[in-house]
Amino acid sequence: MSFDTCGIIGKSSALQEVFRILAKVAPSDSTILVTGESGTGKELLVRALHRNSRRADKPFVPINCGAIPRELLESELFGHEKGAFTHAIRTKIGRFEMAQGGTVFLDEIGEMELSLQVKILRVLQEREFERVGGGKTIKADVRVVAATNRDLEEEVRRGTFREDLFYRLNVIPITLPPLRERGEDVLVLARYFLRNFCANNRSATLGMAEEVADILARYSWPGNVRELENFMERMSILCDGESIGLVDLPDKILRETGVEVPRRLPVQVDASFRWPELKDLREQCMGLKEFLDQVEERLLNEALGEVDGVKNKAAEVLGIKRTTLIEKLKKKNML
Q1: What pLDDT digit, counting tens, does each position of 37-86 carry?
Q2: CA torsion sign, 32 to 64 to 126 to 101?
């Protein structure tokens, strides 16, 4: 049976090594600790682990330990009995019960407080737990996979993470490499994201200038795959041309890669042209936004009148895309 990567994309040797380890450990029930920087795709990796395990037909239940208030996290994990605390008006099933037979994914486990770490340790050691406010022991037939962007060994030294829990979790460690260490994967992912976003956000696929591709490949991507994905979505929406050029790249990317930040040349106008001045706003008793809205609306009307209302031609006259023209007309109720 082929290994299901759950949509993780990449050809780099660093990622292929992760796949190799994943394929070996997926069929086992061993506890896995996945480490890596934020945005590297740890949850996607854990989903691939579950998808290729013997528990694939059972639930995959994730919980972000850093996103739930500490006072509620124990109840989320183990459930609670009716009346266990104020507002516990009914019995609640926790994530470990939901995942029976499957996989529990404890994301950002480094955020978990020490008192709750003890109870996770018991689940790993004894394979059982109790609901908050309950006395009945419930068996936990689950595989536990944890992930963190913290250095847990350093947390152990600082006394903020239990050493015994760390070693229970760290049976098989898998480190997901940051995007900057995945070489060619940057452009593979960039083109993949761009193609998908263009299919949703514009009528034609957006190209990428060769110099832009070189810059993106050299940029460090501190936010990793998540940052790259968000960036390509932004490009698919904001780029006016047929391909991404230097002027479309943010200054921080250009500066880090040693490229001089390009500037658009000022528009050359006839000497007789008079730019609007503050006195024009005062004479019309308008603020800047209202003044610019009025100017834009007049130009839109003039362009449409010049081409008998044909929007494609009006967009050409104004030097904008047809989709941009339509959006402007919608906002101004001019359709």
Answers
A1: 999 999 999 999 999 999 999 999 999 999 998 889 999 999 999 988 87
A2: negative
